[in-house]
Amino acid sequence: MIRVLLADDQSLVRAGFRALLDAQSDIEVVAEAADGEEAVRSIRELRPDVVLMDIRMPLLDGLAATREVTGDAGLQDVKVVMLTTFELDEYVFEAIRSGASGFLVKDTEPEELLRAVRAVVDGDALLSPGVTRRLIAEFAARSKEPAAAGEMARLTEREREVMALVGIGLSNEEIARRLVVSPLTAKTHVSRTMVKLGARDRAQLVVLAYESGLVRPGWLG
């Protein structure tokens, strides 16, 4: 079973998500939280697999709550998916940089929400379709100048190539087709790159691709 915690200050939103998730044979909602502080307490107590975290909440907002969760070594297996009302929420890029595994707009289709929960458990990043590249390009353009090579020097040429493809939003299957390798080989390259760079998940690998200068916003097309 995939254990999910819902953190949102709107009870109607939580009720809708719970009804959808609990109807699945492989997903169970283990708790709800109406503010960030309650969310962090419940996450530490229950250690769910996935947290659906609203960005704007009282007492402690979703961004600060996510930092507390991702900064806790004992909660490394907990995946946070941010929920936002607007596709271009100004906090989304920073949330991913802080360790969130992705984000979804609240009016996403039910099938996409279910795919999101299952995808992050499998180690994939999840960003709402249609806005991923535009959003990352916009906020990467506002972020600091590319960092020095540093850890990037540890990557092989192929790993750098794979990281660049992850950075422009390609899935393992798309990377495999681009490089004419198997999806398993592509996934292995992605995993090794994450380990070498200390990336929590695929979403952080995307951010590192921009911050290192390996990918620039103008390349997205």
UniProtKB/TrEMBL annotation:
SMART domains: HTH_LUXR, REC
GO biological process, one term: phosphorelay signal transduction system
Domain HTH luxR-type as annotated: residue spans: 148-213
4-aspartylphosphate carried by residues: D54
UniProtKB keywords: DNA-binding, Phosphoprotein, Transcription, Transcription regulation
Database matches in InterPro entries: CheY-like_superfamily (IPR011006), NreC/VraR/RcsB-like_REC (IPR058245), Sig_transdc_resp-reg_C-effctor (IPR016032), Sig_transdc_resp-reg_receiver (IPR001789), Tscrpt_reg_LuxR_C (IPR000792), WalR-like (IPR039420)
GO MF term list: DNA binding
Domain Response regulatory stretches: 3-121
PANTHER family linked to this entry: TRANSCRIPTIONAL REGULATORY PROTEIN NARL-RELATED, TWO-COMPONENT RESPONSE REGULATOR
Stated name of the protein: Response regulator transcription factor
